[in-house]
């Protein structure tokens, strides 16, 4: 996108330089036209130089035609230059809008990521707490199981003794 802006700027500068040259030529032609008119005025006073006056008149008409063509060309180039400037401005606005949209999107995604990181940390804390509770409950159950087994063993011993005592009686 930057390359197209650069190309447009170069084209704009090139056309602007051409437009300046046309203006200089127009000024030169205008100056020449004024000189020719002055020359024509002096020649009309001097009747003996009528033929050169006629040539200057033709030259003046040619230069006037050229000046008119150059002026028209200059107007067209100025219109084209304005179109290019407008297009460049629109492209720059579009680029800046897209850039702002992307910044907003990145900011939103960063905030979402931050929230997810907080959620993960909270879940990890809860998981650690549950793991500790589970270990404690397992230890308690292991102790209770040990006691239960001891009681079962003692109960069997007492039963054995009772059976033994019954047999002895």
UniProtKB/TrEMBL annotation:
<feature type="coiled-coil region">
    <location>
        <begin position="99"/>
        <end position="126"/>
    </location>
</feature>
<keyword id="KW-0175">Coiled coil</keyword>
<protein>
    <submittedName>
        <fullName>DEUP1 protein</fullName>
    </submittedName>
</protein>
<dbReference type="GO" id="GO:0098536">
    <property type="term" value="C:deuterosome"/>
</dbReference>
<keyword id="KW-0963">Cytoplasm</keyword>
<dbReference type="GO" id="GO:0005814">
    <property type="term" value="C:centriole"/>
</dbReference>
<dbReference type="GO" id="GO:0007099">
    <property type="term" value="P:centriole replication"/>
</dbReference>
<dbReference type="GO" id="GO:0005737">
    <property type="term" value="C:cytoplasm"/>
</dbReference>
<dbReference type="GO" id="GO:0098535">
    <property type="term" value="P:de novo centriole assembly involved in multi-ciliated epithelial cell differentiation"/>
</dbReference>
